[in-house]
Specification:
Distance between the termini: 81 Å
Helix content: 10-25%
Radius of gyration: 29 Å
Order of helices and strands: HEEHEEEEEEEEHEEEEEEE
Largest sheet: 12 strands, antiparallel, barrel
CATH topology of the largest domain: Outer membrane phospholipase (ompla), Chain C
Number of domains: 2
Structural class: alpha+beta
Number of strands: 17
Length: 368
């Protein structure tokens, strides 16, 4: 009996010792496992949803810091929101630049997304669209009230997409892409909503980006055509066989994640009519609010684009747009914008470029 009580006491001591060991050791193991899980989850998220290559993830007790070579068009606030939705994450932060080496014994779990190899048909673009440029290919429609008292519908159908992308000097990337679009303007005051003018454009674009600096060199063709009904109803209008190829260079710089400036020049290399001026200039500024509303789905935006061309005697064309952008709360591949619009300057419609117009309007624009 005595031996039995001693055995039970011994077993009780062992049980208490094992329980104490679990209470002391297991939380540390669980934290380490949790940090490793978070790091793996974060790497997969950054690679597949945000397409960040070579990004380093450091996790310490549920606190995540991402060091990215470049963010491009990605909004760091969205990346933070997505990371903080990972189970176990206490706080997340995104920084640009190289990651510091963890201090020995600091308990930091580190992982990295794979470095990008050359890619055929990659997602996204190295250079963001010039949103207020009325001849940047995308899908959109707008209603304009002109200062002359007339009305018009404007439409755009087109897209820009990358064909090939690879690494480039100075820790950057380059890509080869294609742009194509059709831009039409219609007269809603006519029974058949007459087509007034249609511009057709197609171009080959080579782009480069290194962190906040990006730019492109483009050669594009544009031709313009008046609508049949417009010609029949306006016999006094002299049709111009407007067609040209232009080479232009644009540079863009992200001052912050919410402010961008751009500018550049171009020259027409083949033209019809022969009297058409060759030189072109363009500059602009874009602002996107760092604050999101309605659960991260709505963002205020504002854009301004200014152009002067030799063919219009260097008159300034001003295009200003502002409104709301609707987007996915976690990733930003697709955007829908509802914008108020103002334009003043030479007509952007090719056949009518000698006329000066001014309008206010509202437009819907889709970006993919």
């Amino acid at each position: 009996m005595w031996y039995g009580n001693a055995g039970q006491g011994r077993r009780a001591e062992i049980a208490w010792a094992l329980l104490l060991l679990c209470l002391v050791a297991v939380p540390g193991l669980a934290t380490a496992a949790s940090d490793e899980y978070i790091a793996g989850y974060a790497v997969g998220l950054l690679e597949h949803e945000f397409h960040l290559s070579g990004a380093v993830v450091q996790v310490e007790q549920g606190r995540v810091v991402v060091y990215a070579k470049r963010l491009g068009a990605e909004d760091p606030a969205k990346i933070v929101t997505a990371l903080e939705a990972i189970p176990g994450v206490e706080r997340a932060e995104v920084r640009t630049g190289p990651a510091p080496a963890p201090a020995p014994g600091a308990g930091v779990v580190q992982a990295a997304t794979p470095e990008s190899d050359s890619k055929f048909l990659p997602r996204g673009l190295l250079v963001d669209p010039l949103h207020a440029d009325l001849r940047w290919p995308h899908f959109g429609a707008a209603y304009h009230a002109l200062s002359s008292g007339s009305r018009e519908f404007a439409s755009s159908f087109g897209e820009s997409f990358a064909v090939y992308r690879d690494a480039a000097p100075f820790n950057g990337e380059w890509e080869l892409g294609i742009q194509a679009g059709v831009f039409g303007v219609f007269d809603p005051e006519k029974r058949s909503i007459d087509l007034i003018n249609a511009d057709y454009t197609i171009g080959i674009v080579t782009s480069y980006r290194a962190d906040k600096l990006s730019g492109f060199l483009r050669i594009r063709h544009q031709s313009s055509h008046l609508g049949d009904e417009f010609i029949l109803n306006n016999p006094q209008v002299n049709r111009i066989n407007l067609s040209y190829e232009e080479i232009d260079l644009k540079l863009s710089y992200d001052v912050t994640t919410w402010l961008r400036v751009y500018g550049g020049v171009g020259t027409i290399v083949r033209k019809e009519p022969s009297t058409l001026g060759r030189e072109t200039t363009q500059a602009g500024v874009e602002w996107k609010s760092p604050w999101l509303f309605l659960g991260g789905k709505v963002r205020p935006v504002a854009y301004a684009d200014f152009q002067t061309h030799a063919r219009t005697n260097w008159s300034v064309a001003q295009s200003v747009m502002a409104g709301l952008q609707f987007e996915n709360a976690k990733i930003g591949d697709r955007k829908l914008q509802v914008l108020g619009e103002y334009y003043s300057g030479p007509s952007p419609d090719g056949q009518l470029f000698t006329q000066r117009v001014e309008w206010i309007g509202v437009g819907i624009h889709l970006w993919f």
